[in-house]
Specification:
By secondary structure, the chain is mainly alpha-helical. Helix content is 45%, strand content 5%.
Length: 114
């Protein structure tokens, strides 16, 4: 809430699009206590944080999406595309770019009919 408040106070006429986290997996890292490294010690995943961002952005009247749900990266393939959290391959980066482009196209289509 504080982030959205600060952004909108500084840029009241800006069109804000919030983007949720990518799927992340951090086994054997501080704060990640489950065996797979998907959930932190609060029981939350990167996708959970992305969902929260989407919900809060909507409360402030901003568009948002959690592209961690749309790029096809999951527990079984995340290490194929990077270090488990950061995208480091062209395939992963293309998936992220395509998700963002498709979301922006969807927004544009909605504006045409608004």
């Amino acid at each position: 809430h504080q982030m959205m408040n600060n952004i909108l106070a500084r840029c009241p006429n800006a069109i804000i699009i919030a983007v949720g986290d990518i799927f992340g997996k951090l086994p054997n890292r501080a704060g990640f206590t489950d065996t797979y490294g998907i959930y932190n010690n609060h029981g939350l995943s990167t996708i959970d944080y992305g969902d929260a961002l989407v919900e809060i952005a909507g409360m402030w009247g901003c568009r948002a999406f959690n592209f961690g749900k749309y790029v096809g990266i999951n527990d079984s393939n995340v290490n194929t595309y990077g270090d488990g959290l950061h995208p480091t391959t062209d395939v992963y980066n293309h998936r992220i770019a395509n998700a963002i482009v498709n979301f922006l196209r969807e927004i544009k289509a909605l504006e045409v009919y608004a």
